[in-house]
Protein: Periplasmic chaperone for outer membrane proteins Skp
Amino acid sequence: MTKNKMNNAPALIAKAGICMLLAAAVVSCNNQGTSPASTSSAGDSTQATVEKIVYVNADTLLEKYEYFKDIRVKLEDKAKKAQADLQSRSNAFQREVADYQQKAPTMSAADRQSTEERLARKQDELARHNQNASASFAQEEASENEKLYSRITDYLKKHAKEKGYKLVLTYSASNPAVLYADESLEITNEVLTALNAEYTKEKK
Structure:
């Protein structure tokens, strides 16, 4: 695990969360049979469809969703511990190398070869530990992002069905797939309130 990988943990999950939100389009079709007499005009139909398209601000959602905050803290703590462990192992190895370099001139050829081989093995072990720790962190990060995605999309599917929304879009300043949306179509606060309420119940 590299130092940059660990230090970038919050940014990585935030970016991943936003990308997943941008992919979460919820379609809820509640078509029922109607008689020709009850069919509205093309203009009225278009207006009704527009009113059933809403959007969620992904930046606000990630900033204020308590579940995501807890995930971020969890990953930050894991990154700090892993970095501290790696630093400790690296420092110990460097001390061994420095000790060998100091004693090498007075060591026999056989002892020097034996020590160098041992240090080479330790260096390989340190590299493998680094790789394994990095892979473990990436796997946990991906798992947490998947849980975040599922929680949000599962709720939006239910919410869209209850409200009769045909499409739920997401907006993010860092990835503006939606260039403009009327504020009257935004449902971020109601979604955020409901998600935080559900998470608060779970934590109790």
